[in-house]
Design a protein that fits this description.
210 residues, two-stranded antiparallel sheet, 7 helices
Length: 210
C-alpha cells in the first residue's frame, strides 16, 4: 500500500438549474432526484441521507432529496445526459462531472501539488467563487463540497521505487482523464475502466493494483 501526495477535494453535489418537480399538497413541494456512485449503507451514503434530512428540516418539509445509490443511474457522464434530459436533478460527483462543469477544479488532481489536506482545502476555499460561477455558467448550482482525502494505492506486489511503479499496471476510473494523462507522462501503465469493471480487471490480472 502506497500513499501518493495528492489530496483530492472531489466530492461535489451539483444540482441542474431547471424547475423542480411539484407534488400534491400533502407532499414536499420540491423533490430533487440525486444520483451517486456511493453504495447504500456506506458511511458516504449515510452522510448524504443526513444532509437530506437537514434540508428537509430547514425547509420545513418543502424540499425532499431522493438518492439513487450505487451508480444505478449510470456513470457520471450518463447521469449528465439524464440531467440534461430532465430525468435527474443532481449528482454527488466523485470528480469527473464536477470537473466538466467547473473546470478549475482540475487543479486538485495534480499529483504532488498539495502536501496535506489543509493545503488542498485552503486552495478549494480560495477557488470557491470561481467554481460556483463556472458551475452556474454551465447551468448548475454548486451545493456542497467534501474531501476524498489522499490517494492510496493498493498493489498486488510491493512498490518501493519509481521503477516498480512504472512496471505496475494500475487501475483508475476511466473518467479521471487528468490522472490518466499524468500517469502517461510519468510512464506509468494506467488501465482505465468503469467503476463496476475494476474488481474484474484485477481478478483477471489485467491490472496489478488500484
Amino acid at each position: 500500500m502506497t500513499r501518493m501526495s495528492r489530496f483530492a477535494v472531489a466530492v461535489v453535489m451539483l444540482a441542474w438549474l431547471v424547475p423542480t418537480h411539484h407534488a400534491a399538497a400533502d407532499e414536499p413541494k420540491h423533490k430533487l432526484r440525486i444520483s451517486t456512485a456511493a453504495p447504500d449503507g456506506t458511511s458516504w451514503a449515510n452522510t448524504f441521507i443526513a444532509f437530506g434530512r437537514d434540508i428537509a428540516k430547514q425547509t420545513h418539509g418543502e424540499v425532499e432529496l431522493k438518492y439513487y445509490f450505487g451508480g444505478i443511474a449510470g456513470d457520471e457522464m450518463e447521469v449528465y445526459d439524464l440531467m440534461q434530459a430532465g430525468k435527474l436533478d443532481g449528482i454527488v460527483s466523485g470528480g469527473p462531472l464536477c470537473r466538466k462543469v467547473a473546470p478549475s477544479m482540475r487543479v486538485l488532481d495534480v499529483i504532488g501539488l498539495f502536501q496535506n489536506q489543509e493545503e488542498a482545502q485552503h486552495v478549494l476555499n480560495q477557488l470557491r467563487p470561481t467554481l460556483t460561477k463556472e458551475a452556474h455558467d454551465n447551468g448548475y448550482a454548486l451545493l456542497a463540497t467534501g474531501s476524498l482525502g489522499p490517494i492510496i494505492m493498493f498493489s498486488r506486489e510491493p512498490i518501493t521505487s519509481m521503477a516498480d511503479l512504472q512496471k505496475s499496471r494500475l487501475w483508475t476510473w476511466d473518467l479521471n482523464t487528468v490522472f490518466i494523462k499524468e500517469g502517461t507522462e510519468m510512464k506509468i501503465p494506467i488501465v482505465g475502466t468503469g467503476l463496476t469493471q475494476a474488481q474484474k480487471a484485477f481478478d483477471e490480472k489485467r491490472t496489478d493494483g488500484f
